[in-house]
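Progress report, Aim 2. The chain analyzed during this reporting quarter is listed below.
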Amino acid sequence: MRVLETDRLILRWICADDAPFILELLNDPSWLRFIGDRGVRTTDATREYILKGPVAMVERLGFGLYLTERKSDSAPLGICGLIKRDGLDDVDIGFAFLPQFTGMGYATEAATATMAYGKNTFGLKRIVGITSRDNVTSIKLLEKIGLKFEAMVKMPKDEDEVMLFAWDA
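Predicted structure tokens for the chain:
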């Protein structure tokens, strides 16, 4: 189901049929480096990951990650959305795009629309974002969409601290 639309993008719910794309994204070197290895290596495991992760979150909270497609050809580019993570008090914005679609403004466009959706549809007064200190691209994007560095935090089950950025109404 379509959730958001921008000039160039459609953001829609992720479904089990998206497994081949999500499998590619989860195993992209930049995902593995900056987000972490989810141990998902097959299409069947990816379908399970989708159903227990993004689909379950939408059913539980009404928001989650959205598959980001290019309008002109319906090509899946990445994911962007609102997430409620264990270890964070606030909803955070998450995003990941395949490398061939970075540097074109797609992530900024998707994240800007997602921030507005969180504020206007869900009435969120605070949205956070986390990233590793060496993920310069994500840091720039979080700052571009209005989040400011707040603190270093340690997430459950992670060894290294991550940077916490926040936007407050």
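The chain has one domain: 2-168. Helices lie at 19-26, 29-34, 43-61, 106-122, 136-144. These observations will guide the mutagenesis work planned for the next reporting period.
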